[in-house]
Each structure stands twice: as C-alpha cells, then as structure tokens.
Amino acid sequence: MTAPQKDDRSAEPTPAKAASVEKPKAGEAKKPKAGEAKKPKSGAAAAPEAKSTSAFLAACRGEKPSHVPVWFMRQAGRSLPEYRKVREGVPMLESCTRPEMVVEITMQPVRRYGVDAAIFYSDIVVPLKAIGVDLDIVPGTGPVVEHPIRSVKDVEKQLRDLEPGDVSYVSEAVRGLVGELGDTPLIGFSGAPFTLASYLIEGGPSRDHRLTKELMYRDPDTWDALLGRLAKIAAAFLRVQVEAGAQAVQLFDSWAGSLSRDDYVRYVKPYAKTVLDAVADLDVPRIHFGVGTGELLGEMADAGADVVGVDWRVDLADGIKRVGAKRAVQGNLDPTALFAPDDIMKAKADAVMKAGRKARGHVFNLGHGVLPATDPDALKRLVDHVHAYEVR
Question: Per DSSP, what are the bridge partners of residue 137?
Fold first, then answer.
C-alpha cells in the first residue's frame, strides 16, 4: 500500500453482498446472462465482451454503468474485526500463501459492504519473496530487505524471472475466488517497478528515497537492469492472476509521487509502460494508481492505463482534465472523510460523483486506502449512498 500507511502493497480486498445490486451468495456463481462474459476456465485469459454487465467493468471501459461502481483500496484489512480474527497469529506474508485464507479475506468486504469489485488479498512484495529475495514484512515498519540491491551484480544474484509455479498458491486462490464471487469482478494487482525498486534499494520504507534517487542518477546501468527485471516480474505476476480468472488489474506505484514530472518521464515511466503493455493482450481493464501523483496523472495515463487512479489531494475535475478524455478515472474521496458526520461525508462523496460525470468513466474509490481506525459501518453507509446516486 503506501507512504502514510507504510506502503500501498496490498489493497486487501473482501467481497460482500450488495445492498442495492443483487449479488450471489458466497459460493454461489450465477449463470452468465445474454451479453455477459463467462468466467474464464482455469489457466485461460478472460475473453473480451461487447458490453459489460458489471457496473465496475462498464465504467472502466467507458460504457454507461447501471449505477456508480464503488470499491476501496484496503477494503479488507485492519478496519474489519473479521479480518483481525482470521489473521490472528499469522504473519502477513504467510497469510498471502494460504489460498483458503486469501479467499476468505478477499471475500469479507464483498459480503459486508456489497462493493462492485473485489481486490485480491496479497502484497506487492509477494512475487519478490517467491523468487527468493530475503525479505519480511515487519509489523509497524513494512517490508524489510536483508540484502539491499546496489549494483548490477546484486540484480543478477537476487532477481530472476517469476514463473507461474513460483506463485501457484496465487492461481489457486484466484480460481477459488472466481467461484465465490459470481458476477463480482476480481481485481488482480502488482507493485510498479519504481516502488518495488525503492524497497530493494533502501532496504525498507523511506521518507526521502535518497538512496533510490542517488542510484537512479548515478548508475544508469544498474537502474536499467533493476527496473527492467522488476517490470518483467510485475507483468508476470499480473498475468498469473488474470489467467486464473481476475477480470481487471491495478498497478500500484505507491512512491511515484516523490518524483518530479521530468524524472518520472525519464527514469520511471518507460518501465511502468513495459508492465502495462505486457498485459494489454489479456483484454482486461488496466488501472494505474500512485499517491501524491497529481502532477504525473497525464504521464501515468500515457504509460498505458485504461483507468487512472486519482488521490484525494487533487480535485477530481482537475484530475479528469489531466488524465484526458480517452481514459476513465478512479477515486477520490479523502479517506478521513469517513470520520466526519454522515452529512459531510455524503456531501463530499456527492461532489466527487458530480465531477466524475465528466469523465469517460468513473469508479468511485477513496483517494488512498481505508484507514485502520475506520468504522466499517461508515463504509457500508458510503457504499449505499454511492449506489443510490443517479447515473446520467
């Protein structure tokens, strides 16, 4: 996950039963209706459809949805008592390798809130751990890397290509979720090359990313070797999820907001584009999100996104202009608005949705992840309010 909350490594999803849109019960998969895409078989990519019956997929593709779709980054996680109960005594990375636990945690918000999409419960460092990088997620700190990467030799020694068999537990969990979710789409995700590189270079979270930027400026050979390899790993991780049944993907670039526009274009954008281009043939919506990236939105769109996430620091109307008319947007209510009185929270949500009408498509979300202290009932009231908003 991201900076204020250690990182944007996991959006930690969970499915719930919709209040305003009929959704199948957990474990019950609806038969596809006319014009509705069938779920892909195990190991097969999802086929494109002429028209989306999912409000989330419709908005991502610039079609008119039946209602404003909504999901939340970190919609599963510490704000949910059921999540805390399931995770009790289980380290984060271990929980990501247990398919039954991944399915349960991913489903929790879908059942509770009735959101229009689930996001796969995992962490952005999972593929790095899977290929043998010596790292752990330390409670209260975030990912910590035992041997930071500072040279081409380090890249060659520590990073190899990701093979599907390295993350077979991911494929198993995605297949289980497709059956549980029915008509609710599953979003797969990966960390973007720059954000992954920052952890590997710094050895953990950083406030100023000094070592990362120093290597970026001083050692172009190592920078290219590192980000080029991470782009391949990220693309492979996304492909594994889609080929198992995920119907959209999100590329999290949690730390890209630390860069100037010029540095992003020169040193980072080409590698993000490599990832997004590598999964273009899968015909699923590609969402690109970063925190503090208001000045980079146009470049992030140009990197190959179908949908660009906008954080809460940017007025959504301005964000839409920066993204351009060819892409949908996602966002962007301030996560702390959920701590405000209901009338204020709903007024702020209305302002976001009103602005979203000007976009090619709009998926309602927070401008970053759900905060751990958020009242789950407030999220439920917000989902119901968004679903009741008139679509024009």
Answer: 143
The active-site residue out of 7, 8, 123, 302 is: 123
7 given a catalytic annotation: no
- Checking if the pLDDT of 216 tops 60, the result is yes
Tokens 């008509």 locate to 183
Q: Which of 199, 264, 267, 271 is catalytic?
A: 199
Contacts with 53 (C-beta within 8 Å, 6 or more apart), sequence order: 33, 35, 36, 183
- DSSP type of residue 21: S
Q: What is the per-residue pLDDT for 51?
A: 57
Two structure tokens written together for 61: 């593709």
111 catalytically annotated: no
Contact of 387 with 18, CB cutoff 8 Å: yes
Is 350 labeled as catalytic in the residue annotation? no
Minimum mean pLDDT range among 24-28, 100-104, 329-333: 24-28
Q: Judge whether residue 71 has pLDDT over 80.
A: yes
Report how far residue 254's alpha carbon sits from residue 368's, in angstroms, rounded to the nearest whole number. Answer: 10
The tokens 């809460």 sit on which residue? 312
Alpha-carbon distance values, 107 to 79, 85, 87, 211, 323 (Å): 14, 14, 14, 38, 31
| Segments making up each domain of the chain, as ranges | 3-23+47-388
Based on the residue annotation, tell me whether 8 is a catalytic residue of this protein.
Answer: no
At residue 78 the predicted structure's pLDDT band, cuts being 50, 70 and 90, is: confident
Closest CA to 246 of 288, 279, 198: 279
Active-site choice (9, 61, 87, 360): 87
Q: Which amino acid is at 254?
A: S
Mean pLDDT of 142-159: 97
| Mean of pLDDT values over 218-240 | 98
Looking at every residue in the chain, the average pLDDT score rounds to: 89
User: Can you give the pLDDT at residue 76?
Assistant: 86
Rg (Cα) of the chain, in Å, rounded? Answer: 19
pLDDT top residue among 341 and 49: 341
Q: Count other C-beta atoms under 10 Å from residue 38's C-beta.
A: 10
CATH topology for 3-23+47-388 is TIM Barrel (3.20.20)
Predicted local distance difference test score (pLDDT) of residue 32: 37
Helix (H, G, I), strand (E, B) or coil at 40: coil
- 74 is known as an active-site residue: yes
